[in-house]
From TrEMBL:
Residues 1-22 are annotated as: Disordered. Residues 9-20 have a biased composition (Basic residues). It holds the Pfam family LRR_5. PANTHER family: IG-LIKE DOMAIN-CONTAINING PROTEIN (PTHR45661:SF3), SURFACE ANTIGEN (PTHR45661). It comes from Eubacterium limosum. This is Leucine-rich repeat domain-containing protein. InterPro entries: LRR_5 (IPR026906), LRR_dom_sf (IPR032675), Surface_bspA-like (IPR053139).
Length: 293
């Protein structure tokens, strides 16, 4: 997958398996017409329903609690988008599909359980869920879409499941209280702007990582050190720029591609090998170096 990378536009250059299109059946679906007649604070979608339709409860601000019966197997795109008073969601293990932006802009959402067999979190699913502090991602996950958790201001920790090979464009962008992130050993790509403005002091990049995308860790103002594994072949521009506390970067091999201004020029010291490509790069951009020969 990583061998096909030729530009910073990941949608174009990554041979990425796209998740199957969300299947939706109108039969036995909880729809917007039903929702308009059923505006309650504690919404229970009962056993007579097999799915929640697209935009079914979009912008219904009266809902505080949501409970889905075990008969529900899918949630349509934008189904609960803009439910700004929604605090908790109880979801059965039978749910197999959650549509794009299904819980986007649920600004007070604090509690939600994801089914243990869920394979895909689609783009923008939890965008702007500003009250969400933690979420357990099931080990069954194979794909997390772009902008899935963008601007989840209070998200504090996340463990990426083992099967995930790519952190997509702006997945955790603007999660300014994200203090701990655990990356899986099989991760190959950290995408463009994936962790902009997060708050972890360190992050363990796994052996086997191939690409660190454009501005991947831009403005991570608490980041203090980073060890870049020898498997990394491409570090795109501004990957660690705007990280004023980043004092130590260990880079003991020569990646094929090193973009402009990877780090700030102030306090960052790059630990590298003398007369290496990295050494020449640091001289060009006037970064401090410490040799580990």
């Amino acid at each position: 997958m990583a061998e096909s990378i030729k530009s910073t536009n990941q949608r174009k250059h990554i041979s990425r398996r796209r998740p199957p299109k969300l299947s939706y059946q109108s039969k036995n679906a909880y729809t917007a017409d039903i929702a308009r007649q059923n505006k309650v604070k504690h919404l229970v979608i009962g056993s007579e329903y097999r799915s929640v339709g697209p935009k079914a409860c979009m912008n219904i601000t009266k809902i505080h609690r949501l409970e889905l019966a075990a008969s529900v197997m899918s949630i349509g795109e934008n189904a609960f988008r803009g439910c700004t008073q929604l605090v908790s969601v109880s979801m059965p293990g039978t749910v197999q599909e959650i549509g794009e932006a299904a819980f986007m802009e649920c600004r007070k959402l604090r509690e939600i359980n994801l089914p243990k067999t869920l394979k895909v979190i689609r783009p923008r699913t939890f965008k702007l869920c500003r009250a969400l502090k933690s979420i357990e991602l099931p080990e069954s996950l194979e794909d997390i879409g772009e902008n899935a958790f963008i601007d989840c201001d209070n998200l504090q920790e996340v463990a990426i499941p083992q099967q995930i090979e790519m952190i997509a464009f702006r997945t955790f962008y603007g999660c300014k209280h994200l203090q701990e992130v655990t990356l899986p050993p099989g991760l190959k790509i950290i995408g463009r702007e994936a962790f902009v403005n997060c708050s972890f002091q360190s992050v363990a990049l796994p052996d086997g990582l191939v690409t660190i995308g454009d501005s991947a860790f831009l403005k991570c103002k608490c980041l203090e050190s980073i060890h870049i594994p020898k498997s990394v072949r491409k570090i795109e521009k501004w990957a660690f720029h705007g990280c004023p506390r980043l004092k130590k970067v260990v880079l003991l091999h020569d990646p094929e591609v090193m973009g402009d201004w990877l780090f700030n020029r102030g306090n960052t010291v790059v630990h590298c090998k003398r007369n290496s490509k990295v050494d020449a790069y640091c001289k060009e951009f006037q970064y401090k170096t410490e040799y580990l020969d």
